Amino acid sequence: MTLPADLRARFGVPADLAYLDCAYLSPLLDTVRAAGHRGLDRKAAPWAIRRERFFDEVEAVRGRFAALVGGDVDGVAILPSTSYGTALAAANLEAGPGRTILVLEDEHASSHLGWHRKARESGAALVTVPRPADGDWTAAILARIGPATGVVASPACHWTDGSAVDLEAVGAACRAVGAALVVDGTQSVGAVPFDVARVQPDFLIVSAYKWLLCPYTLAFLWAAPARREGRPLEEHGFCRAGVEGREGATAYTFAFAPGARRYDMGERSNWVSLPMAIAALDALLAWRPARIAATLAGWTGRIAQAARERGLTVPPDRHRAPHLLGVRGARPFGPEDARALAERGVRVSARGGALRVSPHLWCTDADIDRFLDALDHPTRSRS
């Protein structure tokens, strides 16, 4: 199967807009929007919602995410956000005096702040891996993993500029010293291949509203088999064993449903967002992340080369992700630069001093041309 050629119209992206900002928010595919409308109609008539609707779409979404990351359905939990998943992982991993928790410099707050709290409350030392001058995050992380390491929290690529981390190498180093690996896949899963069997994270956490093309306030967690009997953040009846047949029961059941289902958020059975997520994940599974990544790599590679020719800097090709690229100048780029580009019909984000460019399959070569033309005609000096 080749990738569809009509995706711009199906995502509803205007012809005069170069929307290169999937790392901020993805638009919604037509099938995803239609599923959302059907969900709204369903909630408008609650007398027609059958009991099984509290469970069947939950399991359908769980299975699709598992397939996307090469995992098993029992390892998947349905969450509201990355920060929720980080808090859940932190609550279920050991760290204390004499142990370290490794995080990356300038990492997203949703990943960083939970580990800051964990270190403060447990007595562990929070170790920040500084941004490497050569762009090689993998070597920088590996150099700081040792016998005292308790947890390594890392993305597959840095959210500000797409500089990549070899998570297979980091995972192997963690296992060698008995450390846990927690991966924030929010800025990678869906756009590039990810295989939990190869990386072997203890927890993988992915917010769904970016590269998974899903609605907001939805995230997924995959827990390794050894991490599925921990403590959930919430206590509610829908993650308990046999709940499907217990409608109206007043006797409490304390045994959990199998696997990571105990970690599911309350009110997980959302009749609007779950059908939308099913449609979005079906599209990604059909298109396949490897093919998506190859397509996006052509555009980011072109931008990287053009940026260098203009005296700008980008992460080295060997140390960057295929779908996400940060462009830096002589001075830091900021929100005012992103707003100036938006006025010219080019949408990117300013993150960590870089212009973060993140195309997806709705883009065209003309969108890339428009961005490069904007670089050639800046609204104010970069000096």
How would you describe this structure to a colleague?
Helix content is 35%, strand content 13%. By secondary structure, the protein is of the alpha/beta class. It has a 7-stranded mixed sheet with strand order 2-8-7-6-5-3-4, with helices on both faces. It has a 3-stranded antiparallel sheet with strand order 9-12-11, with helices on one face. Helix 7 (167-177) links the parallel strand 5 and strand 6 (180-184). It starts with 6 loop residues before the first helix and ends in a 7-residue tail after the last helix.
List the helices and strands and how they pair.
Blueprint: H1 7-11, E1 18-19, H2 30-44, H3 56-68, E2 76-79, H4 82-91, E3 100-104, H5 109-122, E4 125-129, H6 137-142, E5 149-155, H7 167-177, E6 180-184, H8 196-199, E7 203-207, E8 219-223, H9 273-287, H10 289-309, E9 325-327, H11 335-343, E10 346-347, E11 349-351, E12 354-357, H12 365-376
Parallel strand pairs: 1-10, 3-4, 3-5, 5-6, 6-7
Antiparallel strand pairs: 2-8, 7-8, 9-12, 11-12
Helix pairs in contact: 2-9, 3-9, 4-5, 10-12
Summarize the structure.
The chain has 383 residues and is α/β, with parallel strands linked by helices. Helices cover 35% and strands 13% of the residues. The termini are far apart.
Tags for this entry?
383 residues, alpha/beta, 7-stranded mixed beta sheet, 3-stranded antiparallel beta sheet, 12 helices, 35% helix, globular
Tell me the Rg in angstroms: 21 Å
Percent of residues in helices: 25-40%
Q: Secondary-structure element sequence?
A: HEHHEHEHEHEHEHEEHHEHEEEH
Uncertain segments of ≥5 residues (pLDDT<50)?
none
